[in-house]
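Consider the tokenized backbone below.
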């Protein structure tokens, strides 16, 4: 028993020493690479950035200037009162917080990142030039995507002249039939049956298989020879790869990911989407 205790003590001492060494390790040098530089038009009062570094906020007298991650291109500027001299960005709430040590004022500004989403070649419902566009990154084995179909139907019925719904393909890797479903629905699109096929895929999302997709195709009297050919075509694959890469680029990590006029919607309930549409139409 005594030997065991002594060995255990030595082992624990060695482990603690190892972790202590890791915790206290110091860098021996730094490496640095200039990312960007720009001449500001007036002295900056404060600066902050988003957690991913994609946006840089520079507070100047009377305004906040927003730059891209390389600080070589101005994206926008926000007018503020002259007295504000401190700025911070909250990643959790996506807000800019401005304070003034002169007037003791505090101002909070919500920031929405706006993305340009390609819709060329993507199926859509509603007017092509509608003032509001909802782009949805979908996966046909995603139960939440299936549930959103009813919400979109309600919105399209309420805003027949003002809303355009665009479907983007984003099959997730953990859904074994989602990629084949994306290929199949875009092949059906080439025969003018996208929305019918789209609806049936979601109606059967729990039991998707190649056989089920063939059954759906046959039920719409598709040219099956052409359908199977289009599933393997470069044109169909190219559209899906474009959607996936675009989604990855703008931070899509799950489905459904919904963007309204380029701004991601974090709480896509009917009520919230309805309010956001009204806000866009009021601009």
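A designed sequence for it:
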């Amino acid at each position: 028993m005594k030997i065991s205790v002594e060995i255990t003590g030595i082992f624990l001492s060695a482990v603690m020493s190892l972790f202590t060494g890791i915790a206290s390790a110091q860098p021996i040098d730094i490496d640095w690479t200039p990312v960007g530089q720009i001449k500001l038009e007036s002295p900056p009062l404060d600066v902050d950035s988003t957690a991913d570094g994609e946006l840089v906020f520079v507070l100047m007298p009377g305004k906040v200037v927003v730059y891209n991650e390389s600080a070589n291109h101005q994206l926008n500027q926000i007018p503020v009162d002259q007295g504000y001299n401190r700025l911070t960005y909250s990643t959790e709430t996506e807000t800019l917080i401005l304070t003034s040590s002169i007037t003791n004022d505090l101002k909070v500004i919500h920031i929405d990142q706006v993305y340009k989403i390609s819709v060329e070649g993507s199926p859509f419902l509603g007017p092509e030039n509608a003032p509001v566009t909802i782009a949805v990154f979908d996966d046909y084995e995603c139960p939440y995507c299936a549930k959103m179909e009813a919400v979109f139907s309600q919105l399209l019925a309420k805003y027949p002249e003002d809303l355009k719904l665009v479907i983007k393909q984003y099959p997730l890797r953990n859904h074994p039939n989602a990629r084949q479903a994306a290929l199949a629905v875009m092949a059906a699109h080439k025969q003018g049956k996208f929305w019918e096929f789209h609806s049936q895929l979601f109606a059967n999302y729990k039991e998707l298989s190649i056989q089920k997709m063939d059954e759906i195709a046959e039920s719409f009297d598709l040219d099956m020879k052409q359908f199977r050919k289009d599933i393997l075509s470069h044109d169909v694959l190219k559209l899906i790869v474009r959607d996936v890469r675009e989604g990855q680029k703008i931070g899509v990590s799950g489905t459904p990911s919904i963007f309204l006029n380029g701004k991601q919607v974090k709480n896509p309930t009917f009520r919230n989407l309805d309010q956001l549409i009204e806000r866009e139409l009021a601009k």
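Confidence is low (pLDDT under 50) at residues 1-8.
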